[in-house]
């Protein structure tokens, strides 16, 4: 079965720049040049919420791993952290001096990495909402920054035509990939954490092994790649291009699997849901589309790494090995050591813990919103007292 359009959402009044699913696929967040963050319900007939706060175009949005917070970055140079509820309250992070193009939570939800036109990448703590450190070796706008699945590495892509790999602990750049022929719009880690994919204005998608720092696969398209997303199985990659298409690449076979036409005008953003059953795309046609994946029925089968003849370095048929941890679902027999009850208990415990973490996210965010209000009230009080003193002084004079 081919991928099929499931739903589409209309509500933005300008180019849609970013899309992301919440963990349970109940909601979809989108950002737009219209300065609005929209949260769409995946249940039919459920209303969408429009959140206002940014003073200029929103260029990136992402749900926290628990799904209880949404981060957004904007041309107004700020990052906002929202509680995606009816009130839609948010707190503001200010440290960048240019447009913020990318926001990304670490997989434990504790850190946030942001990338900006001020040529820096910044890392923040989510709970204390504190700026931690900057990474600054790019010599042009930084378009995208992502944590590795284990949170130890950060990858960034820039208009200086490089992709850089950083060690989060030592805060050093450990490698620069300079093989792109244009601005690098988007980069992300493979779910295994062993390789990265990047796409940009030279119309290519390149995959590198981050352990050996070598090129694994190279796909030559015919239009600017604006965004890309790995399927959670690690076996597929979807891209959004300026020729208005979404393309699905089969990484095992090293070939283009599908080209999807839906948007009128450039497709600007694309993202798989956390379980890979759906993917969403946004475009300059102001639309958000949700697609049913359908092609992943067999990715649970055990697939051995094979040789590929996708062109690498422009020479066809050299064959690059895609051994960056193509990930397989466990077959039932592997699990039979544990009883069904044990598995259920573990799942319940994990869910409870996750719920507690989510509640903590909200509490932390609520406390900081209250702190902000308190500061505002204190400032107002100070102003009133100063004005009163001035009045008294004027009278006595």
Automatic annotation (TrEMBL):
Q: Name one GO biological process term.
A: multicellular organismal-level homeostasis
Top-level lineage group: Eukaryota
Return the Pfam families for the record: WD40 (PF00400)
List membrane-spanning regions: none
Q: Where is the composition biased (Basic and acidic residues)?
A: 332-342
Positions of the region Disordered? Answer: 308-343
GO CC: one term? centriole
Q: What does this protein do?
A: May play an important role in centriole assembly and/or stability and ciliogenesis.
- Protein name as it appears in the record: POC1 centriolar protein homolog A
């Amino acid at each position: 079965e081919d991928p099929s359009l499931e739903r589409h959402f209309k509500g933005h009044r300008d180019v849609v720049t970013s899309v992301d699913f919440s963990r349970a696929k109940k909601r979809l967040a989108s950002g737009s040049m219209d300065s609005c963050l929209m949260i769409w319900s995946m249940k039919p007939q459920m209303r969408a919420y429009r959140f206002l706060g940014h003073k200029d175009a929103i260029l990136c949005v992402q749900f926290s791993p628990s799904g209880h917070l949404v981060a957004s970055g904007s041309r107004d140079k700020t990052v906002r952290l929202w509680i995606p509820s009816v009130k839609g309250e948010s707190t503001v992070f200010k440290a960048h001096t240019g447009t913020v193009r990318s926001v990304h939570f670490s997989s434990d939800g504790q850190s946030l990495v942001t990338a900006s036109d001020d040529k820096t990448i910044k890392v923040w703590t989510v709970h204390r909402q504190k700026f931690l450190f900057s990474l600054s070796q790019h010599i042009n706008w930084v378009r995208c920054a992502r944590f590795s699945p284990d949170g130890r590495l950060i990858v960034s892509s820039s208009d200086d035509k490089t992709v850089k790999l950083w060690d989060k602990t030592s805060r050093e750049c450990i490698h620069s990939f300079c093989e792109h022929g244009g601005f690098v719009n988007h980069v992300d880690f493979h779910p295994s954490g062993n390789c990265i994919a990047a796409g940009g204005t030279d119309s290519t998608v390149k995959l590198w092994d981050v352990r050996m720092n070598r090129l694994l696969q190279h796909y030559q398209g015919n239009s600017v790649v604006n965004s890309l997303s790995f399927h959670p199985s690690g076996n597929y990659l979807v891209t959004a291009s300026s020729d208005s298409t979404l393309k699905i690449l089969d990484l095992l076979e090293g070939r283009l699997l599908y080209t999807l036409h839906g948007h009128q005008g450039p497709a600007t953003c694309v993202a798989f849901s956390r379980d890979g059953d759906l993917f969403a795309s946004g475009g300059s046609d102001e639309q958000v589309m949700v697609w049913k994946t359908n092609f992943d029925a067999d990715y649970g089968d055990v697939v051995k790494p094979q040789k590929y003849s996708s062109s690498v370095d422009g020479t066809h048929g050299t064959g690059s090995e895609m051994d960056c941890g193509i990930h397989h679902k466990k077959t039932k027999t592997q699990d039979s050591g544990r009883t069904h009850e044990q598995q259920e208990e573990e799942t319940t415990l994990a869910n409870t813990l996750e719920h507690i973490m989510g509640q903590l996210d909200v509490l932390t965010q609520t406390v900081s919103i209250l702190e902000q209000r308190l500061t505002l009230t204190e400032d107002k009080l100070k102003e009133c007292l100063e004005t009163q003193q001035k009045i008294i002084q004027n009278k006595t004079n």
